[in-house]
Design a protein that fits this description.
Structural class: alpha/beta
GO cellular component, one term: cytosol
Number of strands: 12
Keywords: DNA-binding, Phosphoprotein, Transcription, Transcription regulation, Two-component regulatory system
CATH architecture of the largest domain: 3-Layer(aba) Sandwich
GO molecular function, one term: phosphorelay response regulator activity
CATH superfamily of the largest domain: Response regulator
Distance between the termini: 23 Å
Shape: elongated
Largest sheet: 5 strands, parallel
InterPro entries: CheY-like_superfamily, CusR-like, OmpR/PhoB-type_DNA-bd, Sig_transdc_resp-reg_C-effctor, Sig_transdc_resp-reg_receiver, WalR-like, WH-like_DNA-bd_sf
Protein name: Heavy metal response regulator transcription factor
Length: 229
């Protein structure tokens, strides 16, 4: 399982981000100050470190600079309220892999994390496909059309957006935090009962009439589109 280090001194933000990353299938260690963050970064193995800049004890710049001097090659994503161009350039020159300015949507953070973790796996400049298929389900983003076999699915815009989100990452659980932000543009802390309602409606059209079920609930985490034996 992918192991992430999160160094964030704001308890609410740290809990929110850690929860979302764990729901996305990652292991998360949280440090709430600079010295603890640096110690963990230098003594444990992580796939990625997410660092705030303004931290008690040691700031994020110092953590990264010290880690790089110690030959640590752990990828680093800065998350900070400091949005000056000079700050971004400084972070990247120190060896950061990306820089995300607060406030940001959790889905953007998760996308940045996944890009860093998968960097080098895809050919540069590869366009995102517009047509997806899973078993007998096809979805054409450009034509806004979905079908199971020869049956066209009559989906509302939100149902289509939800299905598109899921089919782009088949077999990968999408946390409620990501679904809420990507499809409804609302925070995970908001009332997310609307997600469950639309999931039920989508399942009624997508799965109920067919023997092979594709949309599955991962209890307490989110939803996944996949073929199960």
């Amino acid at each position: 399982m992918t192991k992430i280090l999160l160094v964030e001194d704001q308890p609410t933000a740290a809990a929110y981000l850690a929860q979302g990353l764990r729901e996305a299938g990652m292991t998360v260690d949280v440090a709430t100050n600079g010295p603890d963050g640096l110690h963990r970064l230098l003594t444990e193995q992580y796939a990625l470190a997410i660092l705030d800049v303004m931290l008690p004890g040691l700031d994020g710049w110092t953590i990264l600079a010290t880690a790089r001097l110690a030959a640590s090659r752990t990828p680093v994503l800065f998350v900070t309220a400091r949005d000056d161009v000079e700050d971004r350039v400084h972070g990247l020159e120190l060896g950061a892999d990306d820089y995300l300015v607060k406030p940001f949507a959790f889905s953007e953070l998760l996308a940045r994390v996944r890009v860093i973790l998968r960097r080098g796996d895809a050919l540069p400049g590869t366009p995102e496909p517009t047509r997806y298929q899973l078993a007998d389900l096809t979805l054409d983003v450009a034509k806004h059309r979905a079908a199971r076999g020869a049956d066209r699915l009559d989906l509302t815009p939100k149902e289509f957006a939800l299905l598109a989100l899921l089919i782009k990452r088949p077999g990968e659980v999408q946390p409620r935090a990501v679904i809420a932000d990507q499809v409804w543009d609302m925070n995970f802390d908001s009332d997310t009962n609307v997600i469950e309602v639309v999931i039920r409606r989508l399942r009624a059209k997508l799965d109920d009439p067919y023997p092979v079920k594709l949309l599955h609930t991962v209890r307490g985490v989110g939803y996944v589109l996949e073929v199960r034996a």
